[in-house]
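Q: My labmate handed me this sequence with no annotations at all. I'd like to see what the chain might look like in three dimensions before we decide whether it's worth expressing. Could you predict it?
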Amino acid sequence: MGAGINPSFVIQRTSPTVTNIVSGLFPVLNVSILLLLTLRTILGSGTVTLTADVQLNAGDVIGIFYVSNGLNVNLNLGGADPSATVWSVHRLT
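A: Here is what I predict for the chain of 93 residues:
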């Protein structure tokens, strides 16, 4: 991966207006070999954690989105186990 490629997940309010609520970058391993070669790759078993307390209004629609930001590899999110990917939203009153 190039230096400017930073894939992430973002939770957005999609309605009534599009607004980014919180985002989290994929974990990346940076390796520099004797200042001659720099390698960057996403970690195969990494975790992206998004945490935020936000105020939403009745009728707001939210979604979670993958932002590739130039990453051109296929991703297998969650692997063979569908329960490996968790997205939870809690209402606080």
